[in-house]
């Protein structure tokens, strides 16, 4: 696709081998007289084969080593740390050599359970540099979720912090890792970095990361990788079963992340790019780390929350760091608009050129506020639709188009190479405009996931079976009379809480652990701030006066088995669930109940006992009255 020696449009240099087949950075000496373990020999393979970290680091270090790669906006306001490309390369190489010293090799899997920081970015790039596969686990996930991901991917090591810091609170990351790895025999080492000064327990397999990095060589020759070798995997939720390890590969992913970063955000050299996502999600991978770094941008790492220490935090950061592109989630915008405009207007936002929204549908009110108040009606606002599986943005307006043409709250246009189609219930392509259907993509694109780790059949079943010959996204969409796309939401049992994707089955599985609760059914309901929340219907083993206590226990179970954000906002006890004659729960009816569309329940003839509908509606009504008083 790209020729060696040519520059792609995104500026990815698949460079010609330099004289002697050696990249110039091979000759760099370790800094500050750090002891060298002697890895600076020859470069064993052609330069253009070492894809990810060479494109994200070495090519920029060669040309502008002192350009700032990362600005770490730490939780503590006003304590930003700037890291240049040379420094990031140094960190990455030392970390890579440390991993190698402890036996991590090409193809091994490494879990990263860290809050956002230059060291966590270096951890990702260090894995890439030695050909290991990173799997970043969002640092808000519980020990059990972390353990599940480690076991499924067979990780050899975990990289973590002693503690995390967010919104003024410390988070016990190392303690969670300790709990998780108790039952993970594949883990040989836990590398522990220090985010705070607090001491944590260090066991036999724990290695103090910074101490080792100080001793390590600052040169690490990148491993030769094939374009289709795995770069990383990232777990995400589906409508059934456990989270799946989505696999992305070296060249296609990086190319797609870089291209979309450049064109969707109109990135120009010298811009400060502010994506406030966590690296634990695909948005962080593609638009905090790989896309911006491949393009040589200055990428902001935001460790805090939108309301710490006050609701002006984002805009104070925009002013102080002179951010040019700001990319965030609708859930934060909805939260902030409740605090009023003064928190925004207090700060100078004249540096902003493009605003972006991601992860969930953005409602018109939030779009307008983002556009008018934050962007002063001057910046382009792009609503970007994509998924963990797509690797990068697939549908979004482009800033180059006439601003007046951008339609509020619409993802609008496919990116180059993306061919969206809408399908009807019979699996036929819907032609024409002003139509809705299941959103599919008709031809492959460079950034698409290649498989689900360890289960290629599941990959085929989940994405290619419903509409043979097409990639099925799981989302529904509307195509307007002008041919623009608007995402209407998931068509399966996946919900989106504050932009975090979750299978309702995962919550049900967690709650099934409670001995008093034999049956549960979870559905999403519209939530003013979070976009969607979880509403759980439960059946108790026997009538009890302690139902409230059981509900609290269920919440604790969900938090400890998945994460706090997964805890249902509402738990309603019902006598029985609506089931078909074959025993399948009809969640569709429960969704109608919680979205208050009970006047249009649709076909209920397949229900085992249709009187269950009235029973549940009455219980819901009572619950609502009780909770509104
Ligand atoms: O339902 C869509 C929603 O988020 C899902 C993908 O979630 P995840 O893999 O976690 O990736 C999130 C970040 C890319 C999609 O199937 N979604 C994502 N972006 C939008 C969206 N829904 C509406 N509008 C969007 N812009």
Oligomer: single chain
Given as residue ranges, the uncertain stretches (5+ residues, pLDDT < 50) are: 1-48
* Beta-strand percentage range: 15-25%
As laid out across the biggest beta sheet, the strand order is: 2-1-13-12-14-15-16
Main sheet makeup: 7 strands, mixed
Distance, first to last CA? 63 Å
Give me the Rg, rounded. Answer: 25 Å
Q: What is the overall shape?
A: globular
- Percent of residues in helices comes to 25-40%
Helices, by number, come to 17
Q: How would you sum up this structure in a few lines?
A:
The chain is α/β, with parallel strands linked by helices and 629 residues long.
Write a structural description.
The structure is a single chain. This protein is of the alpha/beta class. It is built from 17 helices and 26 strands. A seven-stranded mixed sheet has the order 2-1-13-12-14-15-16, sandwiched between helices. Strands 4-3-5-8-9 form a five-stranded parallel sheet, with helices on both faces. α1 (52-63) packs parallel to α8 and α7 crosses α8 (282-294). The relative contact order is 0.09. Residues 1-48 have low confidence and may be disordered. The structure holds adenosine-5'-monophosphate-propyl ester. Adenosine-5'-monophosphate-propyl ester (PRX) binds at residues 236, 282-283, 358-361, 383-388, 411, 473-475, 487, 490, 496, 501.
């Amino acid at each position: 696709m790209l020729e060696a020696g040519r520059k792609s449009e995104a500026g990815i240099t698949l460079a010609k081998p330099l004289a002697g087949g050696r990249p110039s950075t091979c000759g760099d000496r370790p800094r500050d007289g750090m002891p060298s373990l002697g890895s600076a020999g020859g470069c064993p393979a052609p330069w253009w084969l070492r894809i990810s970290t060479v494109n994200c680091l070495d090519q920029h270090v060669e040309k502008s080593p002192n350009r700032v790669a990362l600005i770490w906006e730490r939780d503590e306001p006003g304590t930003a740390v700037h890291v240049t490309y040379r420094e990031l390369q140094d960190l990455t190489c030392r970390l890579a050599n440390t991993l190698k010293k402890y036996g991590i090799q090409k193809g091994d899997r490494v879990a990263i359970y860290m809050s956002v920081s230059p060291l966590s970015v270096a951890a990702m790039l260090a894995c890439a540099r030695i050909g290991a596969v990173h799997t970043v686990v969002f640092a808000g996930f519980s020990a059990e979720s972390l353990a599940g991901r480690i076991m499924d991917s067979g990780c050899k090591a975990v990289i973590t912090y002693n503690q995390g810091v967010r919104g003024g609170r410390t988070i016990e990351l190392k303690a969670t890792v300790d709990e998780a790895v108790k039952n993970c025999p594949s883990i040989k080492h836990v590398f522990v970095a220090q985010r705070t000064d607090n001491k944590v327990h260090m066991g036999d397999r724990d290695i103090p990361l910074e101490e080792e990095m100080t001793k390590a060589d600052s040169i690490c020759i990148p491993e030769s990788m094939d374009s289709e070798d795995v770069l990383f995997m990232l777990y995400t939720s589906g409508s059934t079963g456990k989270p799946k390890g989505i696999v992305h590969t070296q060249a296609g992913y990086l190319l797609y992340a870089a291209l979309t970063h450049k064109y969707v955000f109109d990135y120009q050299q010298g811009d400060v790019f502010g994506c406030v996502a966590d690296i634990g999600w695909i948005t962080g991978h593609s638009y905090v780390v790989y896309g911006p770094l491949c393009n040589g941008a200055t990428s902001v790492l935001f460790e805090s929350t939108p309301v710490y220490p006050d609701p002006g935090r984002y805009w104070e950061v925009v002013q102080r760091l002179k951010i040019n592109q700001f990319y965030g989630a609708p859930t934060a915008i909805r939260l902030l608009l409740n605090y009023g405009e003064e928190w925004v207007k207090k700060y100078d936002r004249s540096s902003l050129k493009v605003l972006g929204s991601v992860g969930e549908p953005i409602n018109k009110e939030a779009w307008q506020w983002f556009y008018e108040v934050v962007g002063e009606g001057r910046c382009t606002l792009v609503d970007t639709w994509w998924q963990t599986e797509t690797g990068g943005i697939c549908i979004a307006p482009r800033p180059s188009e006439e601003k007046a043409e951008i339609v509020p709250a619409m993802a609008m246009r496919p990116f180059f190479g993306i061919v969206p189609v809408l399908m009807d219930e019979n699996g036929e392509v819907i032609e024409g405009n002003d139509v809705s259907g299941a959103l599919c993509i008709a031809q492959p694109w460079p950034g698409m996931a290649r498989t689900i780790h360890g289960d290629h059949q599941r990959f085929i079943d989940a994405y290619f079976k419903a509409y043979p010959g097409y990639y099925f996204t799981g989302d529904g969409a509307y195509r307007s009379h002008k041919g623009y796309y608007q995402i209407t939401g998931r068509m399966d049992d996946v919900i989106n809480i504050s932009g975090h994707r979750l299978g309702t089955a995962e919550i049900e599985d967690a709650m099934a652990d409670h001995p008093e609760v034999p049956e549960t059914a979870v559905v999403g309901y519209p939530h003013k701030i979070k976009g969607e929340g979880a509403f759980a219907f439960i059946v108790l083993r026997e009538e009890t006066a302690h139902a409230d206590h059981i509900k609290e226990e269920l919440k604790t179970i969900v938090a400890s088995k998945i994460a706090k954000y997964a805890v249902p906002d509402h738990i309603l006890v019902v006598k029985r669930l609506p089931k078909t004659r074959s025993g399948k729960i009809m969640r569709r009816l429960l969704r109608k109940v919680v979205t208050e569309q009970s006047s249009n329940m649709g076909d209920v003839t397949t229900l085992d006992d249709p009187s269950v509908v009235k029973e549940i509606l009455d219980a819901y009504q009572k619950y609502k009255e009780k909770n509104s008083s």
